[in-house]
Design brief:
By secondary structure, this protein is an alpha+beta fold. The chain is 29% helix and 26% strand. It contains nine helices and 18 strands. A six-stranded mixed beta barrel has the order 8-17-14-16-15-18. It has a two-stranded antiparallel ribbon with strand order 1-2. The chain has a two-stranded antiparallel sheet with strand order 3-4. Helix 4 packs antiparallel against helix 5. The longest helix has 50 residues. The N and C termini lie far apart (62 Å).
Length: 447
């Protein structure tokens, strides 16, 4: 009997010890992950402070610490395996505003100063109307947010442009706030999708409770009275083409070789120079670039305008191509596109690509949840909700600024909505009739 009791005591003690060691190991793992993310956020905060002349507003955040490191474990979590996702506490953070400078110095594509704008003319506190749910595809938004957040994680050192607080700094919004907003939304989406329920991010009341909702009023010197943003639309179009030069498909898309990283010879030539045959056999720059697909001349112009295209190669084969680097000649508004001197070199890619400081590191994006905008002055990863009336009904639609383009340098009155993949301009035009030309715009920042 005594031996049985001793066995019981020893076994129970072993169980307690095993449980304590497991808890300790888990806590150590969590602390290590938290430390990595705190280091990342500290890096963002340090750079942001160097780039900004005013103090960043501190957040009282005692209950919510959603800054996951997007490692392989997180990827498994997104795929809803046995790895547990983080849950969302119900306690709201408190935002404490303070006085700061409202003047923002606007820059262009070359980082040159253009003019100064007052942030209070662009932004004001607001609430989303609570009567309508916010529209978006949950899994597509999650994918685009994860990829955008991963870009911050991977390229905070390589791409200083993303560490610019931008004009939202006048509203006490830091890059750290933007990253925390992405983290929170990703965690909410992960939990809601895993539980097979409509996400709380589609509920305006949940958004109003958990986010600062900032109304973005358009600033366009040509239309000073218009306060709603212009919502243009872009798409990935399917174009016919060929891997080999044919009588019909005889205009190549060129790709730069590795030597172009140090030798920027391609910046000396206009689009017209390229089309004259300088890279073809007998041309003075033959061998410095390589043709990767052939199209018609009209197909080339479409590709240069669209940035990303899907080429139908025949026989059930197709491939995406995305702009890589330009000849650094600015696009001139008002000039016929065939007369533009700007030219882009392309790369073959696996997905639709958005913003990125180089082609291999561009963000993979999804249609229906992506906006292209002014990344330099407004910022990457800013969460947008647009509000508009269609057929007598109010609509709310959410997306993230994960792309940019030449039309947004600088631009405080326009966003470009990625509508989808279309086989023709006619089908694209039919679809975008459902979408607004102008809309109220809101930016969401986690409280």
């Amino acid at each position: 009997m005594l031996i049985s009791k001793m066995r019981f005591v020893v076994g129970f003690a072993s169980l307690l010890l095993t449980g304590s060691l497991s808890s300790y190991a888990y806590a150590q793992s969590q602390n290590q992950q938290l430390a990595q993310n705190n280091n990342f956020l500290a890096k963002i905060k340090k750079v942001s402070h160097k780039q900004q002349n005013f103090k960043q507003q501190s957040l009282i955040n005692t209950s919510l610490r959603l800054t996951p490191n997007f490692s392989s474990k997180t990827a498994s979590c997104i795929q809803f395996s046995s790895v547990p996702c983080q849950t969302i506490p119900s306690t709201n953070n408190l935002y404490q505003p303070q006085l700061l400078s409202q003047a923002y110095k606007v820059i262009d594509e070359l980082k040159k100063f253009q003019y100064t704008i007052n942030g209070n003319k662009l932004f004001s506190p607001a609430k989303l109307p609570s009567s309508n749910r916010v529209s978006f595809n949950q899994k597509d938004l999650l994918s685009t947010l994860v990829n955008t957040r991963q870009y911050y994680q991977d390229h905070a050192d390589d791409d200083p442009n993303i560490l610019r607080p931008g004009v939202l700094g006048t509203q006490n919004v830091s890059v750290e706030d933007v990253v925390k907003t992405l983290d929170f939304m990703i965690a909410v989406l992960q939990e809601d999708i895993a539980n097979n329920r409509p996400t709380r991010l589609q509920d305006p009341n949940f958004i109003n409770s958990n986010f600062r909702v900032i109304r973005w009023s358009a600033y366009n010197p040509k239309q000073p009275r218009r306060k709603n943003l212009r919502i243009t639309k872009y798409a990935v179009f399917v174009h016919p083409g060929s891997r080999k030069k044919t009588a019909k498909f005889n205009v190549p898309l060129y790709s730069l070789t590795d030597t172009a990283k140090t030798d920027k010879f391609y910046t000396k030539y206009t689009k017209q120079d390229v089309l004259s045959g300088i890279y073809e056999p007998g041309g003075k720059e033959f061998g410095k670039v390589k043709p990767i697909v052939y199209m018609t001349r009209e197909g080339l112009e479409e590709a240069l305008m669209e940035g990303t295209i899907l080429v139908d190669l025949g026989g059930g084969s197709s491939a995406y191509f995305n702009v890589d680097r330009s000849n650094e000649i600015p696009y001139v508004r008002g000039i016929n596109r065939r007369l533009q001197k700007r030219y882009w070199y392309f790369r073959e890619v696996k997905d639709i690509k958005g913003y990125g400081y180089k082609i291999d590191e561009k963000i993979s994006i999804k249609s229906g949840v992506t906006f292209a905008g002014d990344v330099l002055n407004v910022g990457l990863g800013r969460m947008i909700v647009i509000e508009y009336m269609k057929n007598g009904r109010r609509h709310l639609r959410m997306g993230v600024v994960a792309d940019t383009g030449g039309a947004f340098l600088p631009n405080f009155h326009q966003l470009d909505y990625l509508a989808g993949i279309f086989k023709s301009k006619a089908s694209f035009n039919r679809y975008i009739k459902k979408l607004p030309t102008y809309a109220k715009a809101y930016i969401l920042i986690k409280k």
